[in-house]
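Handout, section B. The chain below has 80 residues.
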Amino acid sequence: MTQYNIHSAKTHLSALIEKAALGQIFTIAKAGKPMVKVIPCLPQARNPQRIGFLKGQFKIPNDFDTMGQEEIIKMFEGSE
């Protein structure tokens, strides 16, 4: 594994980032002692979209649009 000192890492930061992005792992050292290990970030796995995951699990009644209509009208217009 390649090792760079802090001064060199600061000077060549853009090039080192490119190397890490391509998969090269290296360390950055201070006074010859390794301080950090630089590794590439792995692409995050996307969760599959969940649209339609309950399809077929339940049935919507035919009168869904008018369910409870009488009660709602009574609440707004008042009971007689």
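Note. The longest strand covers residues 33-38. Compare this with the example in section A.
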